[in-house]
Amino acid sequence: MTTYTDDIQDTQALKDQHGSTWDAINPEYVARMRAQNRFRTGLDIARYTADIMRRDMAEYDADPSQYTQSLGVWHGFVGQQKLISIKKHLKSTKKRYLYLSGWMVAALRSEFGPLPDQSMHEKTAVPALIEELYTFLRQADARELDLLFTQLDRARAAGDETAVEFIQSQIDNHETHVVPIIADIDAGFGNPEATYLLAKKMIEAGACAIQIENQVSDEKQCGHQDGKVTVPHEDFLAKINAVRYAFLELGIENGVIVARTDSLGAGLTQKLAVSNQPGDLGDRYNSFLDVEEITEAELNDGDVVIRREGRLLRPKRLASNLYQFRPGTGEDRVVLDCITSLRNGADLLWIETEKPHIDQIAGMVDRIREAVPDAKLVYNNSPSFNWTLNFRQQAYDLLEAQGHDVSGYDRGNLMSAEYDDTDLARLADEKIRTFQRDGAARAGIFHHLITLPTYHTAALSTDDLAKGYFGDEGMLAYVRGVQRREIREGIATVRHQNMAGSDIGDNHKEYFAGEAALKAGGKNNTMNQFG
């Protein structure tokens, strides 16, 4: 027995109880609709996907080659098509997630219009996008199963029992398009209570993993911009606790918290940490401040000072009323941030770096793992990095260190196309190709994501089409560049009516009205041109 056949039998028993008033109800149609609606609520999704992430984390601990990946998406349709493509080409969604980028919510989903990544957008846009993504992924399930049901009916009509058995097996073992979403809550959009309330909305929408960063909420910056301001650990840990309480209140006991540190590129803090005794967490945070030693006589009205080991230290305060850290302390602050977060409720780490360099990342992770051996990273394979230039420079440095002649290359101009067909460029491209695998093995990276790739692909593909369509190519630009490729490469959107749910709707009409149903998919539907 399977869930599908169980549902048929259960509905038949229920139908028998109601007698002739339920004569129009077909138990198999009910089973089909239930199969197409596997997840009834966002909390069902959060529980299911949290289990997936926890299993994947354990498998990575046992074997670092078992890392996970995601692409950032900004619309439900984009996320849906990504998962359809993964199932089509790679046959399974295993270890492939979605990433919800705060950057793209700000840039593409705010009612204010395009905004910078500074927590200026409506925070309600974040849970709304989570809900939208899962609506589209569930619709992908419904569509795929609907196609299987149609095939099953045809096989039955043809009396092909072998085909019936095979299709029934596909239905019974259907792999859902619903996968974990790692969702960006920025710096929490306010105080810990605000963080808790937003986290609840995100979890109720289906989020099993929430990423939060240690920047100050009202001065939050994109991780790859200047002017980042961090908060003392006590403030950040309160927000981690707020997220955990939100998970627990809603019954998601294995929800995942990703603690992001921006300390590598953040040279400022909004306030000094509270310290009760030498060497405590607050004292260690303050120890990184840029200070000058003064005497009591040098104290001015309004000065803020720290007493340490009998000395008076005056932190350097900027006109913005922010305090600055000593240059060169970024990595030490990152290590302290990460150890502290893991020891206080976080499950995964995110270290925002200024370049994709495995040795740099591994150097920090090695230090973290001295304190927390199973520390794991979510790492941003960011479009803000110039990957070509960075890796060509890394290849240049490697070749030079190995004694190769690099006099034919200008290290400062390696982005130039003149180097594209060189040994150095091929070496760099190979390092880019294996970056995720190598980073997982050497630098503790459990999950590789690209924050805003589909922002760039949407712009690039639109540019290609607009250039041709409004130029000399006219309709050929669309036909050759889009439709012909869709047909030949089996892209499901070529039958866009089906993708939008027209055939599902037709079948429902038949369930509800029988032969009287007015269906859209008849002989005059132009989608029939695509088979």
From TrEMBL:
Its cofactor is Mg(2+). Keywords: Lyase, Magnesium, Metal-binding. It catalyses: D-threo-isocitrate = glyoxylate + succinate. Mg(2+) binds at residue 184. InterPro entries: ICL/PEPM (IPR039556), Isocitrate_lyase (IPR006254), Pyrv/PenolPyrv_kinase-like_dom (IPR015813), Pyrv_kinase-like_dom_sf (IPR040442). The keyword Transit peptide does not apply. Can also use Mn(2+) ion. The active site is at residue 222. SUPFAM superfamilies: Phosphoenolpyruvate/pyruvate domain. One of its GO terms (biological process) is carboxylic acid metabolic process. Substrate binds at residues 101-103, 223-224, 260, 380-384, 451. GO terms for molecular function: isocitrate lyase activity; metal ion binding. PANTHER family: BIFUNCTIONAL GLYOXYLATE CYCLE PROTEIN, ISOCITRATE LYASE/MALATE SYNTHASE. This is Isocitrase. It comes from Microbacterium immunditiarum.
